[in-house]
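Final report, Chapter 2: Outcomes

The project's central promise was a pipeline that accepts a single protein chain and returns its three-dimensional structure in a standardized token representation, suitable for archiving and comparison. That pipeline is now operational. To close this chapter, we reproduce one record exactly as it appears in the project archive, with the input sequence first and the structure output second.
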Amino acid sequence: MKKLEYAMDKLHISFDRNIIENYRAYMEGILKWNKVINLTSIVEPEEFIVKHYIDSLLCVPFEEFQAAKTVVDVGTGGGFPGIPLALAAPEKQFVLIDSLNKRIKIIKELCEQIGIRNVTLIHGRAEELARKKEHREKYDICVSRAVANLATLSEYCLPFIKKNRWFLAYKGPDVVNEVKEAERAIKILGGNLVRKEKTFLEEFDMNHNILFIKKTGITPAKYPRKAGTPSKEPLK
């Protein structure tokens, strides 16, 4: 776990032995369950630490994340970036959403075993949950590492966010074309791409981008469209 400690120190994230042990326990739990159900393709612990933990934590130093009280992780998969962020920011409340109930049950069980108390797990599709009163425009921050183009991801995520709050989209090094193609969709959904932050940690050969999209208006009631449509027919 030395790599994680080093990265957290570089990112100015406070931690103690108990927090590091919680990261270890969650990783071991995910890798154990991964033999039964596919939660991650990354099964080597050192790679897991870099690609799941350190990558997830890259948004923590930014003011937008620091100011948030409530965070929703859309398409959390094996719990990323939600769980690493929840361990790093115990003062915040996290809601993790995934369409596969088996994943949600496993993450919930691991959270209970480890004692991660600032996380709520919800099974469901983003297109349906974002239409519910208890979730629509209720969160300060939406984070997502889900594998989807930005236009689709914006339709999933922007409806969850309060006005004047933020969607932080984790993307790879080359996002120029994707951003261009999603510009109109983001505006339609009430968002505005304010900036792109390169998150480069040379020691781990990480060269990623976090897109900071501000919710500047109200998402029109017809969005998100019915389940499956945003991925099949991205807004243009």
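Archive annotation: The beta strands are 70-74, 93-98, 119-123, 139-144, 161-171, 191-201, 206-215.
This record, like all others produced under the grant, will remain available to the consortium after the project formally closes.
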